Structures are given as C-alpha cells and as structure tokens.
C-alpha cells in the first residue's frame, strides 16, 4: 500500500538531488547565449556556475560525514552552514543580474525559486540534524 503524498517524509537525498538540479540548471542556462545577454555571461556567468556547483559539493560532502561524535557533527554542520550562505550569495547575484541586465521575470522567478527550495531543504536538514545530534557527546 502506498503512502499518500502529503504524509510522505522527505527523502534523505532530496537536498542533494535539489542541489544537483540547481547546479545542472545553472550550468545549462549559462552555456546558452540565447537565454542570457553575452555581457551578463561574461561578467557574472562564472560566478553563477561556481556558486551553484559549490552548493552541490558542500551538500554532497556534508552528507558523506557519518556523525559519530560531537566533532563529526560540528564538521557536517559547518558544511551545511556554508551551503546555506552560498545559496544566499547566489540569490543576491541572481537579483543583481536580473536588475542590471533585465532578465525575463519568469526566468528570474524560476531560478530564484530553485535556489530558495534548495536553501529551505538545507535549513530543514540542519534542523533535523540538530534534533538528532544536538545532545551528542
């Protein structure tokens, strides 16, 4: 018997999958000069791609850490926090590019929503880890 969609718990890998999807989308739109003005790609394209890849790598690396002590939990938490900040920076960069280069609103909204979903999943992951490992010695 299947579990109704609203009652399903989030996959442990959903944040990794979302971060991967964000990196993939960002790289794909950066390599298409029909979707972005060449000046934007020249000035900001590398930043966008590097930020999205960084978010994915930080999430992936954090997920590899098996929490068995306060130290390993602290290491994982630092990586999650870096991924959180990288999402915030990417959002700021997207906003700047949208304003300066007048990106189409639909593209800006879709891309920003992808970043926000990734950010929210990272934050939920951090909170779940806090509940799970907060009292670890």
Describe the structure.
The protein is mainly alpha-helical and 137 residues long. It has 4 helices and no strands. The longest helix has 32 residues, at 70-101. The chain starts with 13 loop residues before the first helix and ends with a helix.
Short key terms for the protein model shown above:
mainly alpha; elongated; 137 residues
Main beta-sheet strand count, sense and barrel state = none
Describe the global form. elongated
Overall mean pLDDT:
88
How far is it from the N-terminal to the C-terminal residue, by CA? Answer: 40 Å
Structural class: mainly alpha
Instruction: Assign a percent range to the helix content.
Output: over 70%
Task: Count the E strands.
Answer: 0
Count of alpha/pi helices = 4
N to C succession of SSEs: HHHH
- Determine the strand fraction and express it as a percent band: under 5%
> What is the alpha-carbon Rg in Å?
17 Å
Low-confidence stretches: none
Summarize this entry quickly:
With 137 residues, this protein is mainly alpha-helical.
């Amino acid at each position: 018997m299947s579990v109704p969609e609203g009652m399903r718990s989030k996959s442990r890998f959903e944040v990794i999958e979302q971060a991967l999807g964000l990196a993939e989308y960002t790289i794909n739109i950066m390599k298409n000069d029909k979707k972005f003005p060449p000046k934007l790609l020249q000035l900001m394209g590398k930043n966008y791609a590097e930020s999205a890849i960084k978010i994915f790598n930080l999430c992936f690396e954090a997920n590899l850490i098996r929490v068995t002590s306060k130290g390993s939990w602290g290491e994982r938490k630092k990586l999650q926090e870096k991924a959180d900040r990288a999402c915030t920076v990417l959002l700021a960069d997207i906003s700047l590019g949208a304003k300066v280069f007048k990106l189409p609103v639909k593209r800006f909204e879709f891309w920003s929503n992808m970043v926000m979903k990734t950010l929210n999943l990272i934050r939920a992951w951090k909170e779940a880890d806090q509940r799970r490992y907060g009292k670890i010695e």
